[in-house]
Input
Amino acid sequence: MRFSLKSPAAVLILCLLGGCSGAQSALDPGGPQAQHLARLFWIFTGVCTVVWVAVMLVLLASLVRRTPARPDPLRLDARSERRSLAVVGGAVFATLLTIIALTALSYLSQRQLFARERPAVTIKVTGQQWWWDVRYESDAPDRTVTTANEIYIPVGRPVTVKLAATDLIHSFWVPSLFGKQDLIPGQDNEIQFTASRPGVYRGQCAEFCGWQHAHMGLVVVALPANEFQNWLTAQAAPAAEPEDAERKRGAEIFAAKACIMCHTVRGTSAGSRVGPDLTHFGSRKTIASATLPMSRGNIAAWIVDPQGIKPGVNMPNVSIASNELDPLVSYLAGLR
Amino acid sequence: MTAVESTAQEDLRDTHLDDAELHARLTRTWRTGASLLARLSSVDHKVIGRRYIITALLFLCLGGLSAMVMRIQLAQPEAKLLGPDVYNQLFTMHGTTMMFLFAVPVMEAFGVYLVPLMVGTRNIAFPRLNAFSYWIYLFGGIFLWVSFVLKIGPDAGWFAYVPLSGPEYSPGKRVDVWAQMITFTEVSALAVSVEIIVTVFKQRAPGMTLDRIPLFVWSMLVTSFLILFAMPAVMVASTMLILDRLVGTHFFNVAEGGDSLLWQHLFWFFGHPEVYIIFIPATGMVSSIIAAFARRPVFGHLPLILALIAVGFLSFGLWVHHMFVTGLPQLGASFFTASSMLIAVPNGIQIFCWLATVWDGRPIYKTPLLFVLGFIAIFVIGGLSGVMVASVPIDAQVHDTYFVVAHFHYVLIGGAVFPLLGAVYFWFPKITGRMMNEKLGRWNFWLAFIGFNIAFFPMHILGLQGMPRRVYTYLPEMGWGPLNLLSTAGAIVLFASFVVLLVNVLLSAARGAPAGDNPWDAGTLEWATTSPPAPYNFPRIPFVTHREPLWDNRESLPVVTGLSVDAREVLAGTVTESFPQLRESSPQPSIWPLLAAISVAAAFLVSIFTPWAVVWGSIPVAITLTGWFWPKGTPEDEE
Amino acid sequence: MTRAVVMVIALAALAAGCEREDRPLRSEAALNENREAIALASNAPGPGGPIEYKSGTRAQYEKIAFHVSQGKKLFTWYNCSGCHANGGGGSGPALMDDVWIYGSAIENIAASIREGRPNGMPTFRGKIPEDQIWQIAAYVRALGGFVASDVASSRHDQLYAHEGESRLPSPPDTAGGQPGLAQPK
Output
């Protein structure tokens, strides 16, 4: 179908359609739950639009129709009052039926969407101000994987995400995959969803949690099952020893500066759990809770001035000499 | 304290006096003096109501300005106009001001002004409490905004979820200011609700049986009961928060057995009825305007009253729909889906009855009616998007996104502000004696209608595209820039409409055409007084024979006589039939409410710094209350 | 004339705002630590306090609620509680008592953190950024009861370990010099 852009209706429709796609859009579903939610949304929208248009038509008709002058406002025609009563009564009844139908539809959808099956992988996400600690649980302790701000899941299999918070209330929301659920300190919440096609889906914290709530994003990557397994196995391994001199120097700088006070790089002496785990930092697609795309320049910018990019974030500005920055960036970018 | 001047025998009644002498004596008895002390001591509900309305509209301006700054910041991705700290303060101030300092007070204000006039009495019940409630509200609002200017303005959102608003994550005194401001405004609202309930139940004109009470008065009555039952929940919550922050209690400390969800339950148990406290009076305004401009009584008077009461009751059963994503049991949550959708039925009854009135009537397209028509268009969208967010699965996607921001602005601006603007145009002639400019009124309406829709409709789409609430900026690659820019453009147009309103109000107050007593030929009792009403409201108390008294008695209004002209008296009657029962003394002007408000405000203010303020502050409060209640020696009437 | 005076005062108040509520989010990078030179308390007997040289510019850290609260978070994050527990001490000395081996002024505490001290206090120079050292020092001052009650917070959002810092008793006044300079037991 081709619309001429000179038509206002076409512009409106294009605006509305523009709302459909996007990596973080509820109307661009990437899995069966999200699809179900989108369908439910469109059904509700359709019903509500019909109702609103009907009300507007009645209103317009009542304004347009010719009624005789009313010198005495209290003179009412009994027959027309009865007719109005019947119509209003009918409208109220129709409203009640519609409400009951929508409630039933909502409840049935709710039961279906929140049903649980056996998950292929269980991930524990702990929300902190303003990043996501991600932990892949496993019965074998050496196969637990800790990463941050990025979740990989297998395509086509149900994934359970357990939600916890250590400081205050956050909300885990990846609109293309499922609705949101809060991470509440002291409470164990859980959601389950499936991605039906490979891709990168973005999510964001959806409960106001302080200064950098606006930049507390995360990325969900759905891979075919065997690629996912490869990723998981690679992530479980500790960081490889740096081979070249520049990265060795970078590792020394990392250990000598403030970095080890907050970050973990498994396989080195850095073991603090205050900030995100950086063991395979270089393999991630984004930096700083999905705020910056991964690149050497962005790593450098983030290290040099995190407060300029995300004022108030917990990563402080540390003093790095100009000849220390390049090796450090090389070291981090190479942590794949 | 002066004894009432009495003639040699008994007090003089209004029965046999001619109009001129009646007017002169009543004016002397009921007027508010011109000196500063007299004006500060006034207990006239009209004087206080006018102050309330002007103060609330001032707070509307302040809240609107903060919204404009936010919209400019959000017009572009990664804009550097505001940092996160200032933005957080701004959205908190916007929400807090609009909800606590504008929306509820302005509805109460219209109630305070109009309810005594509409029920045919001389003054509201408990007039000194009325004065006190205004001063407490004013001090609370000043407290909040002065704190904002001094950097102690709250920054945790207008509903301040713990643990974010707790002692660890909100250091300093900012959230304490917020929590204490709530106490100010809640005391004020509770006071007004008590006055309105008593006025409506006991001070109606004879003959005004329950079914003859105007719909606006019914709406204020239902609202007052909502306030009575909802406000205590938020006072408890804010007190618990202050205690946690000031003295180290653990109400909301999970590690010591508290619960962050407790805050949400307590707050939203208040918060949901709060929006009906704002909306229900607006429905009363709509009924009044539609009756006058459709030239017929509103269709379905009894169903409308029952719908109002149903909405009032139901509104207490919805609050968990704000907590659908907190991990509550699914069955329990779905109960609240059902109740949240069910409230669409009584709201629908109201809309259908109004439509039937317009259908059968002969509309006169003046500005008040235009705002009511705009209300129907916008509020129905808001109500329908409310039906959508009432569904748990849909809410799981749109909760805490701009979709919800769009929804509540549609129901609040469409459902409360548009009727309010219509009410301003409708009752301005009565309050000031001058008509507002009709041409500017049309500009006002169309700018508001168009600006509002351009500003807020795109937010539905933004929410579905993934934009959460309360973000001070967003990444350019999200693609939210164009719709945000459009929304800001609409906000500018909406802002312009309020500038037009301000210009219209100021110009008309100075140079508007003189309005008569009843420029719209409406039917309710307030239009039987002069414009503006005399200090005593009615020369003699009217006798009511119909729910539209002025339409039923077009030539002259029947009255009852027997009230004193030299002492302040109102007529009290039975609750249902309004048979006259006794002549009740109405208090003289008094400075004690202001002094009591000052001492209470001081105690509240200092108590956010130290708990000892409650102890030491209670002494001036006790002194002022003693002065207030000291018996005045006014002789009570015998019969 | 009085109106002008009132206006000026009001404007000054507005301009100053309320220092307690400052939120200096952007930390000062690479604060020059040599700006604060102090002299340690001397162990020589007799009256007379230590000779101190300080600019006093860092004293504001304990007047700003944001810094004290950040210091509290950092105290947990950097595992100060590992030796000092929640202020009651363990293998390290208590921070909530009146005994300050190396001085209780904020500059002294910051120096202790930065330099390290004999018998186990590690040095954090280069590991903890300078402004965070001052934030932690401000929090330690709060633990000692030196910080005003409207700046310190009333309780931790964790298990109740001690009264909130705003409710701790003020330290006793000592004539001339810093309180409680004594050898640990």
Remarks:
- Residues 1-9 of chain B have pLDDT under 50 and may be disordered.
- The radius of gyration of chain B is 25 Å.
